[in-house]
Amino acid sequence: KWKKKKILITGTSSGLGNEIVSKLLNNYQIIGSSRKLGKAKKFVKRKNFSYEKLDLSKSNDIIYSKKFKNIYCLINNASLFELSDLSKIGNEKIIEIINTNLIGTILLTKKILKDNNKTLKKIINIISVSGLHGIKNQTIYSASKHGLKGFFNSLSQELINKNISITNLYPGGINTELWNKFGQKIKSKNKFFLKKKEVANLVEYIIKSENTNMIIKEIVFFPKNDWH
Question: Taking the model in full, what pTM does it have?
């Protein structure tokens, strides 16, 4: 018998989002969302998993979705990344990153709060250390993540009396497909990158901390070979 608590996770087609689904699937009802099904295909036959196609850069995908009901925990994980000198990033790419990482996440969070005011208790945000300080060649990504930090820090003050907790996670480099794409996976030092499983374990711990009088507001964590 599956536990009744329902968790919505964005960006589940690959990488960390996919790993978080794997970690939580045995104990919760999971809604996985992403622009494409991708590696989440392996979960579709599980009784307690459902998939919702969602492109955070398109407001209509968010506004008109009717499946996001009775959510206990929202995990904002979906994100677009670009590693490039600002002069080489096209304007359309800039808009897509801001719309996905910042505006889309804000709109989704607003919708979940509105439609789940009786069930929602936790919001967990996978932000990035790039949301704490600027990193070379991550200008737009960093701008979007700084925006999320300000948004959720402010929102947490609105929700404290509603018994809804917000936790912001600021990880350094994680060994995911994203790093492979941009050439950041250094084979000789790969053992020092954060493992997806380690981060998923941390997310689970935060969810399970519900019966304590403790609120975990922020966690910053790096690989052992901290490079910035």
Answer: 0.91
